[in-house]
């Protein structure tokens, strides 16, 4: 009898919690009706960025929906994202992102998922420090050989960590972000693999921080970690957990993204031999008998245009990292109450037929002047996001992609077997990035 009472009370409290705030906020942007508890989450599903684009003719550029317990706005065009995201009141974070608890052992730590003054200070400090050192300067690199045993172990943990992105209870955090507030007791009942892998990665990073602590000299920082250690003596907002999370954030934001772009590059060039040969021709005639370096970039407009097109078609971070309003906001007559998730629909910007004409065609020429000599930018090209929280690693990522792609194509030819079935350019969403469909490629060394 007692257990029935307890069950009734628990059910009542849970229903009250889940249904409270289910009334559409006043002047909220239009969107399809939802269902209790789930709102529009099931309707929008895993490919919500695509559905939001498909709903555009009916509801317009600004879509208002409820994802589980979270009122959410999709901004589906580049002008709105640019205008809103340049304002500080759009720089908050909510738990909407199911990956948040993967890197954050504590809410509001690190850089990607922190918010408020803590994020402002840490982003400013990080930008300054990385600029001082230069992202690619030798002093700021930890160098490892390809078969270094420590690196091999690290990469294994990392792969496991990414593979566990949608494991266990995480999809529930996506629907009901408030559960993240009580994650500690929940994970006692439902232990998650990703927590274990994160702890292992933290152990690895903790050792690196400790080594730095032992060998650093005050006033003479050698790299980002030394600088963080120095900064941590001046503020309470940079504890060890923030340093660990920031380093993991850089790993997470900086490795999968770049490698996925290269995967897409081989996938697209393998299917478009004509474009690959044009690319190879430009590289081989401009850079003779040596490696391609960053200083060659201005002389390689077709490479630049092809890279822009690869990043447009692949749209690897289709909704970036959801933002949240830090206060009640009115935008174009709509109200976004404090705490509303604001999704920059990067996928919509890169794939909208109204903006690109033929978005499903891989066509680097769209980024070139008619004489093929000048790169022509398009304001809808925003794979790195825009505004105050845009990608911190954009210039590093673009340098890396340029160097990898040019030096690869200078030396190899990528193709697909004759019996490889045709592939869609849509991509498969892993929860973190959009990946190309599984495919086979053939690699031939160029003479
Ligand atoms: C092809 C490669 C990459 C793409 C497409 C990409 C894309 C993005 C996008 C869309 C965002 C979210 C923007 C927003 O919230 O509005 C972001 C944030 C971020 N990215 Fe990247 N990124 C790439 C590579 C990198 C690299 C190499 C690093 C660092 C080593 C990096 C570090 C970050 C960080 C720290 C943030 C969070 C910024 C903040 O919250 O203030 N990214 N990135």
From TrEMBL:
<dbReference type="GO" id="GO:0016712">
    <property type="term" value="F:oxidoreductase activity, acting on paired donors, with incorporation or reduction of molecular oxygen, reduced flavin or flavoprotein as one donor, and incorporation of one atom of oxygen"/>
</dbReference>
<dbReference type="InterPro" id="IPR050182">
    <property type="entry name" value="Cytochrome_P450_fam2"/>
</dbReference>
<keyword id="KW-0349">Heme</keyword>
<dbReference type="InterPro" id="IPR017972">
    <property type="entry name" value="Cyt_P450_CS"/>
</dbReference>
<dbReference type="Pfam" id="PF00067">
    <property type="entry name" value="p450"/>
</dbReference>
<dbReference type="GO" id="GO:0020037">
    <property type="term" value="F:heme binding"/>
</dbReference>
<dbReference type="GO" id="GO:0006082">
    <property type="term" value="P:organic acid metabolic process"/>
</dbReference>
<dbReference type="InterPro" id="IPR001128">
    <property type="entry name" value="Cyt_P450"/>
</dbReference>
<keyword id="KW-0408">Iron</keyword>
<dbReference type="GO" id="GO:0005506">
    <property type="term" value="F:iron ion binding"/>
</dbReference>
<comment type="similarity">
    <text>Belongs to the cytochrome P450 family.</text>
</comment>
<feature type="signal peptide">
    <location>
        <begin position="1"/>
        <end position="21"/>
    </location>
</feature>
<keyword id="KW-0732">Signal</keyword>
<protein>
    <recommendedName>
        <fullName>Cytochrome P450</fullName>
    </recommendedName>
</protein>
<keyword id="KW-0479">Metal-binding</keyword>
<keyword id="KW-0503">Monooxygenase</keyword>
<keyword id="KW-0560">Oxidoreductase</keyword>
<dbReference type="GO" id="GO:0006805">
    <property type="term" value="P:xenobiotic metabolic process"/>
</dbReference>
<dbReference type="GO" id="GO:0005737">
    <property type="term" value="C:cytoplasm"/>
</dbReference>
């Amino acid at each position: 009898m007692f257990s029935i009472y307890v069950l009734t009370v628990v059910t009542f409290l849970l229903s009250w919690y889940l249904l409270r705030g289910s009334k559409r906020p006043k002047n909220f942007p239009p969107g399809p009706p939802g269902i209790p508890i789930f709102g529009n989450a099931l309707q929008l599903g895993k490919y919500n960025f695509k559905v939001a684009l498909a709903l555009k003719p009916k509801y317009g550029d600004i879509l208002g929906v409820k994802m589980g317990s979270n009122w959410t706005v999709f901004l589906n065009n580049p002008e709105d994202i640019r205008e809103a995201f340049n304002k500080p009141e759009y720089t908050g974070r909510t738990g909407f992102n199911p990956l948040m608890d993967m890197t954050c052992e504590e809410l509001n730590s690190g850089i990607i998922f922190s918010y408020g003054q803590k994020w402002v200070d840490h982003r400013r400090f990080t930008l300054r420090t990385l600029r001082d050192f230069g992202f690619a300067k030798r002093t700021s690199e930890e160098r490892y050989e390809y078969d270094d045993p420590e690196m091999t172990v690290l990469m294994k943990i990392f792969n496991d960590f990414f593979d566990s992105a949608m494991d266990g209870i995480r999809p529930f955090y996506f629907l009901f972000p408030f559960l993240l507030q009580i994650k500690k007791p929940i994970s006692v009942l439902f232990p998650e693999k990703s927590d274990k892998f994160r702890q292992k990665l933290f152990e690895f990073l903790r050792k690196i921080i400790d080594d730095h602590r032992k060998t650093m000299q005050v006033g003479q920082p050698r790299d980002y970690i030394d600088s963080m250690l120095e900064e941590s003596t001046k503020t309470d907002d940079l504890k060890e957990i923030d340093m660990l999370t920031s380093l993991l954030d850089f790993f997470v934001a900086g490795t999968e993204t770049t490698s996925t772009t290269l995967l897409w590059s081989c996938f697209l060039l393998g299917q478009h031999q004509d474009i690959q040969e044009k690319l190879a021709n430009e590289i081989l005639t401009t850079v003779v008998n040596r490696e391609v370096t960053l200083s060659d970039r201005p002389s390689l407009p077709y490479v630049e245009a092809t890279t822009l097109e690869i990043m447009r078609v692949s749209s690897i971070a289709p909704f970036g990292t959801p933002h949240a309003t830090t206060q009640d906001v009115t935008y174009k007559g709509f109200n976004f109450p404090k705490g509303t998730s604001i999704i920059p629909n990067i996928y919509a910007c890169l794939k909208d037929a109204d903006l690109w004409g033929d978005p499903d065609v891989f066509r680097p020429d769209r980024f070139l002047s008619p004489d093929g000599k000048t790169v022509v930018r398009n304001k809808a090209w925003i794979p790195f996001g825009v505004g105050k929280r845009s990608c911190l690693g954009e210039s590093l990522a673009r340098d890396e992609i340029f160097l990898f792609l040019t030096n690869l194509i200078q030396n190899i030819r990528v193709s697909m077997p004759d019996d490889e079935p045709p592939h869609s350019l849509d991509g498969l969403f892993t929860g973190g990035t959009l990946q190309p469909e599984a495919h086979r490629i053939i690699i031939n060394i160029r003479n």
